């Protein structure tokens, strides 16, 4: 039997959180308080982490979360408790502020939540030229397992400090290496990282501003990232691109505003990274954030 890779709570890098004023905006330098918070990394615990992981999966898939069996997917993640991490504050019994895991798509292909994801991601990849060239073929049953794709799922609460992220990714690399040594099914040829981004768009509450933006040739096509490290990781990808959510009706909710002047339209985003480049991509996250991985 393979050894179980349990660990004591791993402390992520100390991070500072800026205290927000009552309007939700950062306070000025004169009245802003700095709060030191200790974040810790834990193995998944099926008795504790189901609901927290499910909530973060709902956030990750945004408008399309209802297309999946999120309960089944959450169960699969938390039961795989030697791979991936939750990030928490104060105590293991609390809900996760962030999570990270990788699933073997070939190993779990017959399970309903994974079959749903494979079909969904294959179709979404076809809508993006970069992804369409490689992703659908890799995920196709015709591949017969020759290419083994690890599906990387990760998300975190908004305004989580970036310093907590490199330790989570670094830990994932170590755990995958240990699992491969134990002859467990984590020897991948590719990693498919699912994330999300957004486009800034003029709020419907300000018609004059929207017209001004259009008149001066404002570009709404640029993808911005909810996870800034994705931009750095993308440089190591074989293919990467965004896609529209199926359940997005095309309207922009004014409640989803990135800044006072702008609304946002969320987009799905994925990147395919060859296994031989994955460690380099993870190292780039640490270098980018400045915390090391």
Automatic annotation (TrEMBL):
Example of a GO biological process term: protein transport
Chief localisation class: nucleus
Family recorded in the similarity comment: Belongs to the BCP1 family.
Keywords: Nucleus, Protein transport, Transport
Organism name: Podospora appendiculata
Protein name: Protein BCP1
Keyword Protein transport attributed: yes
Region of interest (Disordered), ranges: 1-29
Basic and acidic residues biased stretches: 1-25
Domain of life: Eukaryota
GO cellular component annotations of the record: nucleus
Presence of keyword DNA repair: no
Compartments it resides in: Nucleus
Protein purpose: Involved in nuclear export, actin cytoskeleton organization and vesicular transport.
């Amino acid at each position: 039997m393979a050894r179980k890779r349990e660990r004591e709570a791993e402390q992520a890098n100390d991070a500072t959180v800026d205290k927000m004023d009552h309007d939700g905006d950062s306070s000025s330098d004169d009245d802003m308080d700095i709060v030191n918070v200790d974040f810790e990394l834990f193995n998944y615990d099926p008795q504790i982490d189901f609901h927290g992981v499910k909530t973060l999966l709902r956030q990750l898939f945004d408008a399309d979360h209802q297309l999946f069996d999120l309960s089944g997917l959450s169960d699969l993640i938390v039961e795989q408790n030697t791979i991936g991490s939750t990030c928490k504050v104060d105590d293991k019994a609390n809900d996760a502020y962030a999570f990270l895991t990788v699933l073997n798509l070939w190993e779990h292909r017959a399970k309903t939540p994974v079959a749903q994801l494979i079909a969904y991601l294959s179709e979404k990849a076809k809508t993006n030229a970069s992804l369409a060239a490689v992703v659908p073929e890799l995920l196709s049953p015709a591949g017969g397992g020759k290419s083994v794709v690890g599906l990387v799922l990760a998300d975190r609460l908004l305004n989580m400090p970036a310093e907590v992220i490199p330790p989570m990714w670094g830990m994932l690399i170590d755990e995958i290496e240990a699992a491969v040594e134990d002859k467990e099914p984590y020897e991948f040829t590719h990693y498919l990282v699912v994330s999300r981004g957004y486009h800034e768009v003029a709020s419907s509450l300000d018609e004059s501003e929207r017209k001004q933006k259009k008149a001066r040739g404002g570009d709404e096509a640029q993808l911005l990232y909810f996870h800034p490290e994705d931009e750095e990781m993308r440089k190591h990808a074989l293919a990467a691109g965004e896609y529209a959510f199926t359940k997005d009706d095309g309207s922009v909710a004014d409640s989803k505003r990135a800044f006072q002047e702008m609304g946002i339209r969320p987009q799905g985003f994925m990147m395919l990274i060859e296994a031989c480049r994955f460690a380099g991509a993870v190292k780039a996250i640490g270098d980018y954030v400045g915390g090391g991985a």
